[in-house]
Amino acid sequence: MNRAGYNKFLKNRLAVAGLIIILSFLIVAIFAPYIAPCNIYALDLEKRLVPPGTGHIMGLDDLGRDIFSRIIYGARVSLKVGIITVFVSLTAGICIGSVAGYFGGRVDEVIMRIIDILLAFPGILLAVAVVSILGPSLNNVIIALCLVGWVTYARLVRGQILSAKENEYVMAAKAIGAPAYRILSLHIIPNILSPVLIQATLGIAGAIVGEASLSFLGLGTQAPTPSWGSMLNDGRRYILTATHLTAFPGLAIMLVVMGFNFLGDGLRDVIDPKENV
Question: What are phi and psi of 221, to 5 degrees?
């Protein structure tokens, strides 16, 4: 990002706010053991469902565990899933999309038909099916979200490469006999990364929501490990009598997803301004 782009980003208040939110959650996740005031596994059944107040700023859950501490540790789960899922999906999408877009022909036809089949199913339902087969666990949630997520990046990369491979510098590289892997890695992929990285930023938000949804259904992180989705599921039985059990995990999900969406929109304004024309 050049200086002009940097200044434009700083003028976008929503993008800056999104960056601050994301950095705040990252710091909280990294230093969770030093920030969390209570043991996340400690039970106090005599004080179960205690509302927010002195000593427990977000109250206690149905087993007497400190909600604030569990939300702090839950940030680790959500950000881990979001970052790993997008990294793996992005890597696979770039490789597969590059092959489809550059070589075309039957290779492109086969890859695109596979992508069309996967896109025909709602992503969350496909993820539920995969986790149901593999078994509920955090690692299986990541696998399921990766199997669902790579198709978006592959389709985007393919479209970008179909346009980029007609540029003069690519034709010149072909003319001097440069191998395909060299043309892709040195000439094409570096020049198409802007929209892909924007999509990746937005994709982290989607992966976090996906993990929360699967955990809410009991297919993600298993007790007693804290997860925002499982905390929502645990608190729904008390939604009318102890709303803090669902309000604070829901607020955490909303904030981190909003942060990544704001950042993605800001990066789009800076990196690809023609999208807003």
Answer: -60, 130
